[in-house]
Amino acid sequence: MRVLFATSEIYPLVKTGGLADVAAGLSSALQQLNHEVTVILPAYRDVMEHLESVYEVARTREHSCGVERRVRILRAESDSGVNLLLVDIPGLFDRAGNPYQDEQGNDWWDNGERFGLFSRVVARVALNQMALDWTPDVVHCNDWQTGLVPPFMRLFASDSVRRPRTVFTIHNLSYAGKFSYSLFAGLGLPDAWWNPDMLEFYGEFSMLKGGLVCAEHVTTVSPTYAAEICAPARGFGFEGILQQCAAQGKLSGILNGIDTEVWNPARDPYIAYPYSLTKGRVAQKKRNKEHVIHSLAPARAQVDVVAPLLGSVGRMVEQKGADLLLKAIPLLVEESDANFIILGSGERIYEKGFTALARRYPGRVFVRIGYAEDLAHQIEAGADMFLMPSRFEPCGLNQMYSLAYGTLPIVHATGGLKDTVVDASAANIAAGEATGFVMQKATLTELRRCMGHALELYRKPRTWQKLQKNAMLQDFGWQRSAVAYLDIYKSEA
Q1: d(CA 217, CA 235)
Q2: Homologous superfamily of 2-257+478-492 in CATH?
Q3: How far apart (Å, rounded) are the C-alpha atoms in residues 89 and 186?
Q4: Domain limits, the chain
Q5: pLDDT > 70 fraction of the chain, expressed in percent and rounded
């Protein structure tokens, strides 16, 4: 089967979140199952600087928002051997900064045009209108940045040519790609589509809605999240459309996988002391703890490296429970011997709050603002517990990384967190099923209860080691997820 995978990022070329890991992991897993996969993404400046061999395979011109743009299609190959197509529109993508924001962290003012035109070009590639002599069987689109691919394919398709089927994956429904009518018109979309049954969304234009209403099948990244977004509390206004999708059998929840080669404590090049389930787990985790703490601890700080270490890696935003952590950490520092290590960036109020905690408790709380792939791996290897009290979480990857590293996650029972972590209740421990600690509500009280329970069990080495073993035995590789996606591709082909 030939699959065109449309995405705005892919690891390791460009990454701002889990989508990059999914694009890399799923495309590689599909290829390992002997299917032909081509990933198409914008030719960002950073991507072009990191690729060694890139060559042009097609060029054209497209009009958008009153401007004629020169467009080139470039071909390259990823480190994992997956074929890449790069949409080169220099005026829109040859910029410093990340895919969506400038170097000051502000959204690009023309993001709508950037990804609207990208989607239009992807549609032409999918329909073999760029003289590539290659037509996919399925086009797999991801999030609002590619939400207009299915509508444009419908618009451009010829009755005499078979149109590839489309699958649209929601990675986070809260990012709807909402813009004004002027952009809708500027992208050349039919005025008849400005209605609630198509692309108009409460007086605005939603690119994500284009994927929901025009794709043959809609997926999201965990079974629980697929159910949650059909209700108003998590539907962000799309719950009616999603309920229709579910009723028609065109909505599925498929749990993301993780790259078990990249996230493997036995072969992780980023960690100082590799370990496995059968070799050096307890001793090496302690050595990794010492290593990561000393890499961040201020000079002359007195640090108890034997004490339990709780880690967190992620965006510092309300959705991720950053406010709960800011309230809980000082309480636990005062009440226990626990230490904390935090890596991430996000809203300024939270960045300043965590930085202030590190200054207040220099030997207990260690903070790095920003993101560093090596440090993320080192935290997973060195921490005893991983904090992930997200208010909602479509899937989450860090809790799966944590399980693989025997770093027991503390999570809220939502989305993929609920689907992947089994609470360390007495019954689950007795049954040999417990892998972490689960909050039933995203509240400070519940977070403190879970953290307290985790610290209590940490002081019972035999029980703790059993929990670690349960966690590390879990299989969250991409193969199972890839097979589930293939079933959908084949049913839609």
Answers
A1: 18
A2: Glycogen Phosphorylase B; (3.40.50.2000)
A3: 17
A4: 2-257+478-492, 281-472
A5: 99
Structure tokens belonging to residue 480 = 């199972």
Residue 19: exposed, middle, or buried by beta-carbon count in 10 A (0-12, 13-18, 19+)? buried
For the record, the structure tokens of 128 come out as 């073999």
Q: List the one residue out of 89, 88, 105 whose CA is nearest residue 97.
A: 105
Question: Tens of pLDDT along 161-199?
Answer: 789 999 999 999 999 999 999 999 999 999 999 999 999
Give the separation between CA 146 and CA 105, rounded to whole angstroms. Answer: 22
Domains 2-257+478-492 and 281-472 alike in fold: yes
Distance CA 380, CA 402 (A): 6
- Nearest residue to 209 (alpha-carbon basis) of 161, 164, 244, 249: 244
CATH architecture of 281-472: 3-Layer(aba) Sandwich (3.40)
Find residue 365's DSSP bridge partners. 340
CA dist., res. 337 & res. 274, Å (int) = 26
Whole-angstrom Cα distance, residue 183 to residue 121? 16
pLDDT exceeds 60 at position 239: yes
Answer whether 147's CB lies under 8 Å from 177's CB. yes
The pLDDT of residue 341 is 98
